[in-house]
């Protein structure tokens, strides 16, 4: 076949492939683009309590700046994000190491370790709501049995963020562990053999070999959890609805209430687009970090 | 306008109209008129809807229509409704609504079809629209338009443990001050129980707090301004929050009906101020059946002004078949269906059903049911449907009431600060109209 004929065949194949995949591409773009564009449009509108709509330009975004509840929500969102992510990464790596080294652990025990993240968040929220009830829950019963003072858990403005972070950590640490476990299993054994020959202690081996080699995997887990944590909603809504007071009122909860309880869809859209921008920012930052630690 | 004034000014003339009109048209009425049509019902998956939908097949058999049920939990139902109505979609024909909460708002948005004409002109002989609670019909009337038909009657009532009261030498409370005194005595007499429990969860507080405010003689609005910082308003805020802070369970700021009923049913609360709808839950298992008494919330300086509300069935203004939708509403709020629901513990919004022999027999089976019905009778005759501010942004107003109460329970503000902050935010909401 001549070069010209080969190029023609190649071009034709590309055209056919493009034509065949076009419907799927159009559908996917439409499914993603339409809601985003519609939300952007809504962010420029004002809806009265009765649903009457008017164009207000950037007024919704200007309102954000002076809205105390927005800044409080942002603080709560970031506090929950940082606390939960730190706990999940540390405990996730630890759990992965346990599962990696405990080769004889029965399958059922391994399944139990990773079962929390298979539970729907609403169910997890309901379960913890009952356990942490200050009067009827098991948590305070256990504390008091050990001679410790009871806690108000989710009902305390001081403790609600750490408590919600603990619930999320309980649910999602196994997910992080599973990702890290995959990373551990792909590490080259030769490096460990060399370290063993050189007489490195287990701690030094972890510090100098395992952790640096695992960093790209850990950052990947951090990216996945970041997206979820910044738009954390279900467990908070089930357990506290943003309370007590506004102590756990994240941006997501605040936006939901503004939109669907107070029917101000325009301002809620502005809030949610701002949150989306924050999520994108966090993901971009993590991606850069991932590039920096790649090996 | 209270229920009695309403009865004199509006209900009696309406009764006459209904009586004249409905008899005239009853002969033409045909339940099979819309045979073959499908009506979509957006339902709140609560005990009221569950009791109703147990008879879904009866409706389909009686009318030849198909009933498509779109059921969600309460908040998700509203979320779906907002989406559907904002899109002017005809996906929903009939939806459940709480006129005391969203009535002003939905009516102003034009989401309700006006049922006035249908309730007069297109009714079966046995329907008896005038037999429905006039107070609830009034609560569902906005700008002269009847927006929904009542499905049930409910309100917060006072549950208390007769055995603990006897042990501690306490009489049945007659006033709010008696409730406070009883809580003090129980705290000293039996430290194993929570003396008093009611709603402390921010969005849920207005339901019970409104009863306290009205009993004390306060009002939400005076002269077009928020009135929480009035002497009565501050007294209500102080009394309600102090009862929960000093005598309530730990973590009461997260308490709504589920937690309250669980605490009381388990025997760990001596007094509970919670919805009449919770009777079945509270009595579940039978442990509280013999040691509980029920009364409307004790009187304040203004006497007893209990909160009374009810779920209603509304026809969507975007429905393409409002007449067929009305048939479903009519069937669901008919005396026969409401009697069946009443036998499942759904308090009927019809006095005729409440006095039906079969229902009376069910009521008479347990003393606690008799007290429950007696309390509901007081709610029906003396009740006010004002839960939160009587403004379009009623749901949002409940947030600020709840915030003020929570600030006091958590000792984050003084009464003066809490009411002033709430009044400032609520004045802005009132001004929005």
TrEMBL record, chain A:
Main location: membrane
Residue stretches spanning the membrane: 20-44, 74-100, 112-131, 265-286
Domain of life where this protein originates: Bacteria
A GO-annotated cellular component: plasma membrane
Every ABC transmembrane type-1 domain range: 74-284
Subcellular location(s) per record: Cell membrane
GO biological process assignments: transmembrane transport
One Pfam family, short name: BPD_transp_1
This protein's UniProt keywords: Membrane, Transmembrane, Transmembrane helix, Transport
Protein topology in the membrane: Multi-pass membrane protein
Family stated for the protein in its record: Belongs to the binding-protein-dependent transport system permease family.
Protein name in UniProt: ABC transporter permease subunit
From TrEMBL, chain B:
An example Gene Ontology CC term for this record: periplasmic space
Subcellular location: Periplasm
Signal as UniProt keyword: yes
Protein name per its UniProtKB record: Extracellular solute-binding protein
Swiss-Prot/TrEMBL keywords: Cell membrane, Lipoprotein, Membrane, Palmitate, Periplasm, Signal
Organism: Bradyrhizobium cajani
Hydrolase as UniProt keyword: no
PANTHER family noted in UniProt: ARABINOSE-BINDING PROTEIN-RELATED, POLYGALACTURONAN_RHAMNOGALACTURONAN-BINDING PROTEIN YTCQ
Signal peptide residue numbers: 1-26
Family in the record: Belongs to the bacterial solute-binding protein 1 family.
């Amino acid at each position: 076949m001549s070069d010209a004929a080969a190029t023609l065949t190649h071009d034709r194949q590309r055209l056919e492939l493009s034509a065949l995949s076009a419907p799927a591409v159009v559908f996917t773009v439409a499914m993603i683009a339409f809601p985003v564009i519609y939300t952007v449009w809504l962010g420029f509108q004002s809806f009265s309590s009765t649903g009457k709509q008017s164009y207000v330009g950037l007024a919704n975004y200007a309102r954000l700046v002076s809205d105390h509840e927005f800044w409080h929500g942002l603080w709560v969102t970031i506090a929950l994000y940082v606390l939960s992510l730190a706990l999940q990464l540390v405990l996730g790596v630890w759990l992965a190491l346990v599962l990696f080294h405990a080769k004889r652990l029965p399958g059922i025990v391994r399944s139990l370790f990773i079962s929390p993240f298979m539970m729907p968040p609403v169910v997890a929220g309901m379960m913890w709501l009952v356990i942490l009830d200050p009067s009827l829950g098991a948590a305070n019963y256990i504390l008091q049995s050990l001679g410790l003072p009871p806690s108000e858990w989710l009902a305390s403005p001081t403790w609600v963020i750490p408590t919600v972070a603990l619930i999320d950590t309980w649910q999602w640490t196994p997910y992080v562990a599973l990702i890290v476990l995959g990373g551990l299993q792909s590490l080259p054994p030769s490096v460990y053999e060399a370290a063993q020959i050189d007489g490195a202690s287990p701690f030094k081996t972890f510090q100098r070999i395992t952790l640096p080699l695992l960093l790209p995997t850990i950052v990947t887990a951090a990216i996945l959890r970041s997206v979820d944590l910044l738009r954390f909603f279900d467990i908070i809504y089930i357990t506290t609805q943003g309370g007590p007071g506004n102590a756990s009122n994240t941006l997501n909860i605040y936006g939901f209430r503004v939109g669907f309880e107070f029917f101000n869809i325009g301002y809620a859209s502005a809030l949610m687009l701002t949150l989306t921008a924050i999520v994108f920012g966090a993901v971009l930052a993590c991606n850069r970090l991932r590039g920096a630690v790649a090996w | 306008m209270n229920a009695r004034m309403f009865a004199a000014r509006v209900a009696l003339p309406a009764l006459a109209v209904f009586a004249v009109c409905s008899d005239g048209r009853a002969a033409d009425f045909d339940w099979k008129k819309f045979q073959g049509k499908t009506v979509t019902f957006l339902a709140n998956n609560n005990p009221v809807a569950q009791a109703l939908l147990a008879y879904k097949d009866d409706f389909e058999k009686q009318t030849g229509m198909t009933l498509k049920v779109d059921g969600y939990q309460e908040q998700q139902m509203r979320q779906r409704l907002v989406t559907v109505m904002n899109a002017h979609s005809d996906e929903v024909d009939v939806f459940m609504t709480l006129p005391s909460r969203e009535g002003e708002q939905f009516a102003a948005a034009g989401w309700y079809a006006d049922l006035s004409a249908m309730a007069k002109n297109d009714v079966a002989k046995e329907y008896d629209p005038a037999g429905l609670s006039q107070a609830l019909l009034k609560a569902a009337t906005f700008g002269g338009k009847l927006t929904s038909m009542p499905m049930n009657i409910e309100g917060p009532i006072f549950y208390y443990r007769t055995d603990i009261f006897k042990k501690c030498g306490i009489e049945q409370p007659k006033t709010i001050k008696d409730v406070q005194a009883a809580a003090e005595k129980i705290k000293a007499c039996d430290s194993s129980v929570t003396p008093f429990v009611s709603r402390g969860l921010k969005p849920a507080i207005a339901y019970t707090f409104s009863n306290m405010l009205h009993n004390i003689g306060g009002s939400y609005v005076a002269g077009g301004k928020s009135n929480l910082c009035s002497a009565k308003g501050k007294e209500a805020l102080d009394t309600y929050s102090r009862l929960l802070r000093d005598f309530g369970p730990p973590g009461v700021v997260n308490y709504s009906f589920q937690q309250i009923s669980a605490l009381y049913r388990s025997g760990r609360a001596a007094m509970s101020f919670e919805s009449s709808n919770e009777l079945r839950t509270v009595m579940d298992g039978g442990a509280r059946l013999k040691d509980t008494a029920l009364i409307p919330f004790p009187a304040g300086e203004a006497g007893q002004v209990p909160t009374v509300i009810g779920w209603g069935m509304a026809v969507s203004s975007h429905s393409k078949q409002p007449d067929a939708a009305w048939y479903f509403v009519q069937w669901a709020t008919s005396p026969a269906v409401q009697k069946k629901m009443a036998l499942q513990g759904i308090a009927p919004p019809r006095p005729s059903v409440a006095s039906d022999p079969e229902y009376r027999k069910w009521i008479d089976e347990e003393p606690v049911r008799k007290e429950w019905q007696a309390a509901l009778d007081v709610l029906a005759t003396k009740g006010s449907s004002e839960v939160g501010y009587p403004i379009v942004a009623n749901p949002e107003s409940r947030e600020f009431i709840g915030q003020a109460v929570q600030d006091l329970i958590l000792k984050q503000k003084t009464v003066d600060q809490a009411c002033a902050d709430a009044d400032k935010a609520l004045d802005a909401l009132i001004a929005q109209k």
